[in-house]
Design goal:
Helix content is 25%, strand content 30%. The longest helix has 19 residues. It has one domain: D-amino Acid Aminotransferase, Chain A, domain 1 (2-Layer Sandwich). The protein starts with 8 loop residues before the first strand and ends in a 9-residue tail after the last helix. By secondary structure, the chain is of the alpha+beta class. The structure holds glycine.
Length: 247
């Protein structure tokens, strides 16, 4: 099979839809490859960040007009429409659609959301999303996924997890995924085990907070990417400016 090669940065564009209207959530970027530098096999996602500068206002509107609104119009879809995009020089290209929130994209989204989410969810379910707004904190947020040794291949479970309280005492939220309560306390029970999520005044601050909290946590065989958000940091340092309509 021959496929078009797409050059650009991936963006996870998630919109809440009510069958007619759509409300874009803040933009996020996932990191699917298991190792730093986007090397190694793909995973469910090794980390994500949310920053208003991932998409400009013009890019957000383009994605809504070209991708989200036509899909909602044709299908009458209600719920979360997740478009995995490659932002190319020729505009946004859809890599995949999911009809759910993203993991780990949701963790940084929840850290940045200032509004009460429930009224927006009710408005989506009841077909009255028009006029609904969501407020986002200005500062970016970052989620670092801590995975079991061997993931995304075969991995062992049952490893004792330590340090979550210390990480949360530093201001991070540690979302649990592949965990369970064993006889000796919390232990690993999956490939992607924890999502250490933190915010900051700027992306460098959010990265620092997330990685400082990550270093408080330990389980045998734990591994994580050390370059979540680095591509964005490089891009913003080279190209100061840009804004987004959705936070
Ligand atoms: N992070 C990719 C997904 O949720 O499908």
């Amino acid at each position: 099979m021959i496929e078009e090669f797409l050059r650009g940065e991936e963006v996870s564009f998630i919109a809440l839809c009510d069958g007619r209207d759509a409300l874009a959530l803040a933009p996020t970027q996932d990191h699917k490859a298991v190792f730093d530098g986007d090397r190694g096999p793909n995973t469910g996602g090794m980390g994500a960040y949310s920053d208003s500068r991932i998409l400009t206002e013009a890019e957000t509107n383009l994605v809504l007009e070209r991708v989200i609104y036509p899909t909602v119009e044709r299908t009458g879809f209600t719920g979360f429409l997740y478009a995995g995009l490659m932002m190319t020089a020729a505009g946004p290209k859809v890599l995949e659609f999911n009809v759910r929130l993203g993991d780990p994209e949701t963790q940084p989204l929840m850290h940045r959301m200032e509004s009460d989410f429930v009224p927006a969810l009710m408005a989506s379910a009841e077909g009255r999303l028009a006029g609904t707004r969501l407020e986002w904190k200005a500062g970016p947020s970052v989620c670092v996924v801590l995975a079991s040794h061997g993931y995304p291949g075969a991995y062992e479970t049952g490893k004792a997890i330590e340090g979550i309280e210390a990480a949360e005492a530093m201001g991070a939220t540690v979302f649990q995924a592949g965990t369970r309560m064993g006889a000796g306390g919390l232990e690993t029970a999956g490939g992607r085990v924890l999502g250490v999520t933190a915010s900051g005044a700027d992306l460098a601050g959010a990265l620092d907070a997330a990685y400082s909290a990550t270093r408080m946590i330990h389980f045998s065989g734990m591994h994580y990417r050390t370059d979540i958000g680095r591509k964005g940091l490089r891009r913003y340092n080279q190209n100061k400016g840009g804004s987004s309509s959705v936070g």
